[in-house]
Description:
eight-stranded parallel beta sheet; 25% helix; 20% strand; PseI-like; two-stranded antiparallel ribbon; alpha/beta; 6 helices; PseI/NeuA/B-like_N; globular; 10 strands
Amino acid sequence: MKIGERNIGPGEPAYIIAEAGTAHAGDFRIAMQFVEAAKNVGADAIKFQMFTPREELFCPIDGDENRWAWWNQSMLHLREWKNVKQFAENQDIDFFASVFQKTGIEWGKELEFPVWKVASRAALTFPYEEVAGPFLVSLGAHDPTELDFIGTKNVRGMYCIMKYPTPLNQSRWHWQFNCTGLSDHSGTIFPALDAMARGASVIEVHIKLNDTGPDAESSITPYNLRQIC
Length: 229
């Protein structure tokens, strides 16, 4: 599989994704700070999460009603995302996002994501047929029989545990379900380093610029990210 010009797989350097999520808190200037921080420490990509107001999710889960206040606060308009993408291009770092709504699919097409990162909650309901891929799919606790498309030409699985932060004793990467990458939110560097040493092709870690925001406890600093890159 390729992401942009990068070959992904055995014999290739691990592709490192810095996941900023919604930690920009609705300020595109902070989003640009995440881009710059990720680039400065050697990450291959910066990833965000995109939401739009009052639009149904194609992957609802329990507790979403408590998350909307933050999602509404952290939304950016398409024109702002275009500015962030242009800044990322100028920094020579890949830019993409996880999306959860039909509008996000359309925005991703317009922003020309080099890869579609599918969150675990959306693994079974993402509209794969609407975009060309490639896809990185977090598997979470899904039954492998539900995900027989993982490992096909342009789809790769990402091992992850849906606990935030993930306990270290549950964070070790497993080569299963054609799972070639690790999506880690332990808040430490150790699962990523362990996975890379054992052959993982893609590493996604949450990053933070400070200790505010809902993902801070599950995230690492740019300084820590440099130790992975």
